[in-house]
Design goal:
Strand order of the largest sheet: 1-5-6-7-4-3-20-21
Distance between the termini: 76 Å
Number of strands: 32
Strand content: 35-45%
């Protein structure tokens, strides 16, 4: 249970509004509330200003809707500490602002005391939570996507997965996906790929990485400033995981056990991929999720800490004042959360004006985890909604724009086949599986060039859903209530099968044409008509061979093969690095545990030795007392004899 304590604090508050900076004396700050986590912070600060006119620069700038920046620094005043105490620094953007005024005077030019309140947070929350793009990219990495959307944010990307080129990458965060923002997208990506997203409030920088940072200066946390330390036991996960690959000709189910799981309790993950490496990568990813969080330590303060305690800071609990069996004692601990609530003891508009420091009632607490803890803490987020649907045009290179060509790209490495679809909205061409779509397998009707289709876009893949219109010339007049199948490349080289009604009688005909050469078979009521005809004026067509479809297909095949090889190599490398890092972290944990056990054993032996020495000293003291008493008795006897 946290209780408030009195502390003299020095605040430094700077507001930047419309390009102008305003410094607020620390004594005018009356209330501060902060909640910080490894991913960012939210905060609120209230301060008074004295005797401002209606046209005061701060009031004028504050009243405008310009983007406002806040920098808040707070430190305890302790002249006995060397080196100087580490200040807590927060830098962010304003989310909301409020003004309350009290008049002073009775004239029209009266001055007022104004109480300003600003709610602010780290820049990613403020900007990315309002950023909801809908985009389609090809041959792009997530790292490049983040760079394109990072605006003014400082982001370090130390994660190999981010640098992998993806054949397709879709961001679907528009108004038809309520409340899902780019901030949610980043958290969702980090969570689904088992990465780390963290924020350093001191540097105002973000980090995207595959594991938590293990370096940094470790500060000693003074037990005398701690009011209470409590151990929190996170609930262990009681499930294992099964990865199911729902293929018709080779389904697989891979069980991933977990030591604390209850038999029969499982989280199942469903896939449908014929590519073995993709299934294996998903299995490795799900295996890393089955990690049990270690114990946490909740610390509340009775004095403002003199070392940095912002999330991500490394602390060490050492010294005889910490209980010997306390979780985390003599270990490196990382700050996981921080809560701070500060109220000025003198809250009036006249109090501590222009002063740099003042007395405050403070409630403050942090939550600590082991520095070797691999489990990542992320705030709640909304999952992006996939798929989205867009119109596309079938892409088939070569020939004229009106030709009914088709192109199938075969990936020799994966034995998969693809159609290509151009999405005019972004002028990007994506691959979709070459499948029968809505026809059974005994029909082969591939989509023709420039046919309008409805394409379904997922995060990193696309599917052909249905066709939107008929090709030119295939639709028959409504009066005949006819049906028609049109096969071939164009009007000059095609075969048409038509069935309609003439004089309310069914008529079927087949019409084949190739330049001037035509054949007709027509069946109607009581008639069979067959005709073969060749126009004399039409010369024999000069044979031409357009190899551009084969060239483009070969290029796409080569690109897919190279991309697949690079992706497989990158995945193998990343898998190896992940395994190595996991082993290193496991070894570090074992070493720390061994050292902790050794420290405890040595401490017990030292305590035993001390106890023995104290006993021997006590016995020696008793012996000396007896000897002294005997000597004094002997002296007394000698005096009597004399």
């Amino acid at each position: 249970m946290r209780t408030a304590f009195k502390e003299r604090l020095k605040f430094e508050l700077t507001l930047t509004l419309g390009g102008k900076s305003f410094s607020i004396p620390g004594g005018q700050v009356k209330h501060v509330a902060v909640r910080a986590t490894p991913t960012g912070f939210t905060a609120s600060v209230t301060f008074w200003t004295s005797m401002e006119k209606k046209d005061a620069p701060l009031f004028t700038a504050f009243s405008k809707p310009d983007l406002a920046q806040v920098r808040l620094s707070v430190v305890a005043l302790d002249e006995t500490t060397t080196p100087a105490p580490v200040p807590l620094v927060l830098q962010g953007l304003v989310r909301a602002r409020r003004i309350f005024a009290e008049t002073h005077g009775s004239t029209d030019s009266q001055r007022v005391f104004r109480r300003y309140t600003v709610d602010f947070a780290d820049a990613a929350q403020v900007l990315w939570r309002q950023h909801r793009p809908v985009e389609l990219h090809t041959d792009m990495s997530v790292s490049e996507l983040i760079d394109a959307h990072k605006v003014s944010l400082k982001i370090t990307q130390d994660w190999g997965v981010l640098r992998q080129k993806l054949p397709m990458l879709c961001v679907a965060l528009g108004a038809d996906a309520p409340e899902v923002s780019f901030y949610d997208f980043i958290l969702w990506y980090v969570d689904t790929h088992n990465g780390v997203f963290s924020y350093d409030s001191q540097k105002n920088e973000y980090l995207l990485a595959d594991s938590k940072p293990s370096s940094g200066k470790v500060a000693k946390l003074d037990a005398l400033r701690v009011q209470q330390a409590r151990v929190r036991l996170p609930p262990p996960i009681r499930h294992g995981t099964r990865v199911l690959n729902a293929l018709g000709n080779g389904p697989t189910t891979v069980a991933l056990p977990q030591d604390q799981a209850v038999p029969g309790v499982s989280h199942d993950v469903m896939l449908r991929t014929p590519i073995t490496t993709q299934a294996e990568q998903r299995q490795k990813l799900e295996k890393t999720r089955l990690q049990v969080r270690q114990r946490l330590l909740e610390v509340s303060f009775k004095d403002f800490p003199l070392v940095g305690v912002s999330p991500g800071a490394l602390l060490r609990l050492e010294g005889s004042l910490w209980p010997s069996g306390l979780t985390g004692r003599d270990e490196d601990m990382r700050v996981l959360e921080m809560d701070l609530d500060v109220h000025a003891e003198r809250e009036g508009q006249h109090d501590d004006q222009k002063a740099k420091e003042a007395d405050y009632q403070v409630m403050m607490g942090i939550r600590l985890e082991s520095a070797s803890e691999p489990v990542v803490s992320l705030p709640p987020y909304r999952t992006p909604r996939y798929p989205i649907h867009v119109e596309g045009l079938v892409h088939s290179p070569g020939g004229e724009a009106t030709d009914r060509r088709y192109t199938i790209i075969d990936d020799e490495k994966t034995s998969l086949s693809y159609f290509r679809m151009t999405v005019p909205l972004w002028n990007k061409t994506v691959s979709v599986p070459a499948e029968p779509i809505h026809f059974p397998g005994q029909f082969f009707f591939p989509p023709y060039k420039n046919t309008r289709v409805l394409v379904e876009l997922h995060y990193d893949r696309a599917d052909l859903i249905r066709f939107i219109d008929w090709k030119e010339g295939v639709r028959t007049p409504q009066d005949g209530q006819g049906d028609q199948i049109l096969l071939g490349q164009n009007k000059k080289s095609q075969t048409a099968f038509t069935h309609d009604f003439q004089d309310e009688k069914p008529v079927w005909r087949m019409f084949r044409t190739s330049a001037g050469d035509t054949q007709v078979i027509r069946m109607s009521e009581g008639n069979l008509f067959i005709q073969v005809k060749e126009k004399e004026e039409a010369g024999a067509p000069t044979p031409t061979y357009d190899v551009s479809p084969q060239v483009d297909a070969a290029k796409a095949d080569l690109s897919a093969s190279v991309g697949g090889a690079i992706g497989e190599t990158s995945a193998t490398y990343l898998g190896a690095m992940t395994a190595v890092r996991a082993k290193m972290k496991s070894a570090q944990t074992e070493v720390k545990a061994s050292l902790g056990g050794a420290r405890a054993e040595v401490g017990a032996k030292v305590g035993e030795a001390k106890s023995g020495l104290q006993g021997a000293t006590s016995r020696l003291s008793q012996g000396l007392s007896k000897v002294t008493g005997a000597a004094q008795a002997a002296k007394a006897a000698l005096k009597k004899l004399m």
